[in-house]
Amino acid sequence: MMNKLKSLFKKEQGNVIVLTSLAFTALIGLTGLVIDGGSLYMTKTHLQKVANATALSGAQELTGETETIKKIVDDVLNSHHEIASLEQLEIENHSITVELKKPVHFNFITLFGFDTLDVRAQATARLGTMGRAYGAAPLGIDESIPLEYGVIYDLKVDEQGVNIGNFGILRLEGPGAQVYEDNLKYGFDGELKVGDIVYTQPGNIAGKTREAVDYLVTTCDSPEDRTCRRVLLIPVIKPQHKQGGSMPVEIKGFAYFYLTEQDSEDDKTVRGYFLERAGTGFEEPGASNKGAYTIRLSE
């Protein structure tokens, strides 16, 4: 009887050792999954953020030279220490796609025969026609005027409202020459969008225009400066029927205009050129494409 009990005890002791070994192995496996799985998740999250930031930054220059875009991509990746992760870069007319790949080295899962796993992230940023934005200048350009980018324009600013070939002075924030000057210097702080009806501002405020332009042309030296205040966001407008001294106009889209100089003290014009540019804003259906774009990530 005692021999049988001893034999049974030895068998159960062996079973406990086996079960303990299996449990310990499972515990190591779970620990490995938690630690290495967390490393995979963190790497994937980081890599996706870098891909998004790189695509969005590169998309800002899609209206420019390819080499400029590539330099920006390299700069962004270098700033995140991920230049070695760039697997592919595709630059098309109005889109940029960034693909990143980074190997993650395991610590615990190597016990089960897995050493590394490649983590991938991809982001595509596209340009869309701007149809809603903040910060517009209180000037409007008739949508019927064909725009040539980079060509110098002398655009009239006078008390006659909107005429073909002229800017129209827009009353975006109530009447008054001082309000107009502030909006021209710093941009209208409200939102404008396609379909909005605003009114021209009658009266001769060429002097205030000159003062604002003289100030703006001293704020930067090049339209390539993304913070350059000489680059004005101009509503593209369609004149409606005139009402008294002002005229209602419908906003049809936006354009960018770079101020070069005030033409002269006697002439009621501003001088500069239109340019294609991606800026801060939103797409709206039916917006007129006059070279002002917004950027969005594409799924």
TrEMBL record:
InterPro entries: Tad_N. Residues 14-60 form the Putative Flp pilus-assembly TadG-like N-terminal domain. The keyword Membrane applies. The chain crosses the membrane at residues 16-35. Keywords: Membrane, Transmembrane, Transmembrane helix. It comes from the Bacteria. The keyword Transmembrane helix applies. It holds the Pfam family Tad. This is Tad domain-containing protein. It comes from Evansella tamaricis.
